[in-house]
């Protein structure tokens, strides 16, 4: 939605009203996420509600991911969210100054070979400070473009991006219960999530012999009501029943809805 479109908003959509979002908040969210779709903005709001975060402080990002050939918006935390979550525990004691490895050419840019930071957390049971040293290699986190060169963001600010990735890794190390395995938008800028794998679904089995004719008969029975449909289904051959219910459950649901619309007679 463009800024011009925002200027013409007079009534908030029902999903927005249901969430208790007011006019000023709705406009501000579109300013924070320019060009985002309304449904993606609502995903941000729901994410922040679940995580007890202020969506107007932009703790997360809308990142497009290609899933099965289709682009979808995914909500990912930013480094700000991980910092906020760690601070809320009351036991986060900060971290050391970043230490960098020697500058080396890699993926078309000159960058530190690694970044190392030590994170500190107060151990309540032991009554002492615990240390969590983390070192991240540039070559393992840099996002590459189609030409195997660092993408625009990493080429422009390689040290900044490496440092953010190291901080995110360290906060996950020190606060596993509070943060879990969340990867940040900074870490995934221009690349797929490490844990995401594309798995091709196995092809559907061929229908049993006579299935097409049987399905036509079932459609005719559905016009007589749900009782007749269920009786006919129970008396049908097991291969046809199993194929309809397990392989094409949507078709079975459509039949039942069609029968219910005709009543129980």
Describe the 3D structure.
The chain has 265 residues and is of the alpha+beta class. The protein has three domains: 56 residues; 100 residues, no CATH class; 52 residues, no CATH class. The protein is 45% helix and 19% strand. Strands 3, 4, 7 and 8 form a four-stranded antiparallel sheet that branches. β5 and β6 form a beta hairpin. The longest helix is centred in the middle third of the chain and has 17 residues. The chain is elongated. 22% of the residues are buried. The N terminus is likely disordered.
Report the C-alpha radius of gyration, rounded: 27 Å
Coarse morphology: elongated
Q: Helical region count? A: 13
**Class derived from helix and strand content:** alpha+beta
Strand content: 15-25%
Share in helix: 40-55%
Topology as H/E string? Answer: HHHHEEHEEEEEEHHHHHHHH
Main sheet makeup: 4 strands, antiparallel
How many separate domains? 3
Taking pLDDT < 50 over at least 5 consecutive residues as the criterion, the unreliable ranges are 1-8, 192-201
| Termini Cα gap | 50 Å
Count of individual beta strands: 8
Q: What number is the mean pLDDT?
A: 84
């Amino acid at each position: 939605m463009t800024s011009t479109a925002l200027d013409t908003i007079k009534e908030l959509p029902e999903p927005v009203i249901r969430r208790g979002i007011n006019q000023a908040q709705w406009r501000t969210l579109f300013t924070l996420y320019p060009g985002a779709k309304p449904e993606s903005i609502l995903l941000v709001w729901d994410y922040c509600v679940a995580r007890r975060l202020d969506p107007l402080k932009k703790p997360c990002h809308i990142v497009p991911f290609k899933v099965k050939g289709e682009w979808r918006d995914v909500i990912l935390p930013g480094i700000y969210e991980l910092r906020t979550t760690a601070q809320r525990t009351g036991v986060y004691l900060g971290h050391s100054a970043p230490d960098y490895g020697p500058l080396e050419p890699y993926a078309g840019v000159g960058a530190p070979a690694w970044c190392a930071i030590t994170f500190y957390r107060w151990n309540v049971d032991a009554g002492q400070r615990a240390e969590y040293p983390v070192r991240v290699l540039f070559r393992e986190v840099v996002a590459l473009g189609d030409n195997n060169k660092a993408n625009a963001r990493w080429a422009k600010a390689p040290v900044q991006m490496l440092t953010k990735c190291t901080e995110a890794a360290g906060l996950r190390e020190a606060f596993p219960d509070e943060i879990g395995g969340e990867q940040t938008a900074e870490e995934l800028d221009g690349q797929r999530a490490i844990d995401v794998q594309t798995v091709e679904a196995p092809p559907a089995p061929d229908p049993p012999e006579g299935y097409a004719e049987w399905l036509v008969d079932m459609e005719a029975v559905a016009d007589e009501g749900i009782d007749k449909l269920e009786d006919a289904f129970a008396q049908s051959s097991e291969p046809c029943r199993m194929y309809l219910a397990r392989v094409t459950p949507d078709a079975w649901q459509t039949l039942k809805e069609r029968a219910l619309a005709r009543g129980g007679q």
